[in-house]
């Protein structure tokens, strides 16, 4: 009798798993015990194992919070030399770019970030001509910088070429910024690039790098000293963090 009960229980468990896979369009993620367990997938891509078929962004940068999106289909997963890269189709925000389990942009609302980090500094400068973008491998900031007719030269230094190529493939309306003839792309470390830049080269430096816990940790005093050296006197560097989540980072800048 016990053996028969075990067989029924196993078959029932397998049926639930198949139903979950069908319900989540083939995204198979096993359910784990929430208590004391890790609710992200073992590969670190943020695919939730508490709610199968969902992505959950969980990070020590925002303890006690998580942002979850339902996955329609995983479009790309890969490991670059620096980080894990994933693109998935969500139910409500279109395609989503994720680096090391952290959402970088969504098709639905990427414009809000790109426009604010770009146009606020550039509209504060009289006739800007030369701009440097640190990070920004998705190309969205380039797209917005290129809207300013006074701009003559746009340099971008992105550490991870996979981010650039994935963005061109899956987010062409964002990565269109790379097509502007004023853009020069350099794959490499933004800190090293700034150190080598001639003094007073740029009218604006826009820092669109990874979070402080990622591969491009450009939040040190030495980094901002290099930025100041590369800028023309009286010009701007613009970076952005959340005043609700990252006040400690902002205060230490």
TrEMBL record:
Catalytic activity: S-adenosyl 3-(methylsulfanyl)propylamine + putrescine = S-methyl-5'-thioadenosine + spermidine + H(+)
Active-site feature positions: 208 (proton acceptor)
EC number: 2.5.1.16
Matches recorded under InterPro entries: PABS (IPR030374), PABS_CS (IPR030373), SAM-dependent_MTases_sf (IPR029063), Spermi_synthase (IPR001045), Spermidine_synt_N (IPR035246), Spermidine_synt_N_sf (IPR037163)
GO molecular function: spermidine synthase activity
Pfam families: Spermine_synt_N, Spermine_synth
BP-aspect Gene Ontology terms: polyamine biosynthetic process
Gene3D superfamilies: Spermidine synthase, tetramerisation domain, Vaccinia Virus protein VP39
CDD domains: AdoMet_MTases
Keyword set includes Transferase: yes
Region (Disordered), start-end ranges: 1-46
Pathway: Amine and polyamine biosynthesis; spermidine biosynthesis; spermidine from putrescine: step 1/1
Residues in PABS domain copies: 52-253
Transmembrane segments: none
Keyword tags: Polyamine biosynthesis, Transferase
Family from the record: Belongs to the spermidine/spermine synthase family.
Listed PANTHER family: SPERMIDINE SYNTHASE, SPERMIDINE/SPERMINE SYNTHASE
Protein name: spermidine synthase
Lineage start: Eukaryota, Viridiplantae, Streptophyta, Embryophyta, Tracheophyta
């Amino acid at each position: 009798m016990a053996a028969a009960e075990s067989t029924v229980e196993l078959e029932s468990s397998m049926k639930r798993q198949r139903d979950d896979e069908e319900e989540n369009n083939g995204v198979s993620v096993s359910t784990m015990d929430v208590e004391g367990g890790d609710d992200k997938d073992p590969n670190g891509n943020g695919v939730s194992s508490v709610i199968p078929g969902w992505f959950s962004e969980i990070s020590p940068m925002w303890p006690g919070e998580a942002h979850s999106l339902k996955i329609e289909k995983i479009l790309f997963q890969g490991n670059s030399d620096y980080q894990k890269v994933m693109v998935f189709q969500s139910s409500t925000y279109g395609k989503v770019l994720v680096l090391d389990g952290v959402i970088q942009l969504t098709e639905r609302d990427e414009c809000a970030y790109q426009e604010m980090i770009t146009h606020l500094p550039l509209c504060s400068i009289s006739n800007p001509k030369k701009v440097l973008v640190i990070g920004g491998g998705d190309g969205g900031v380039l797209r917005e910088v290129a809207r300013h007719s006074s701009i003559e030269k746009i340099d971008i230094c992105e550490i991870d070429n996979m981010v650039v190529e994935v963005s061109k493939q899956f987010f062409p309306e964002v990565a269109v910024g790379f097509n502007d003839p004023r853009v020069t792309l350099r794959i490499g470390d933004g800190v090293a690039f700034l150190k080598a830049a001639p003094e007073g080269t740029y009218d604006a430096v826009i820092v669109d790098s990874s979070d402080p816990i990622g591969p491009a940790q450009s939040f040190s005093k030495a980094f901002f000293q290099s930025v100041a050296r590369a800028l023309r006197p009286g010009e701007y560097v613009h970076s952005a963090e959340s005043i609700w989540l990252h006040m400690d980072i902002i205060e230490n800048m």
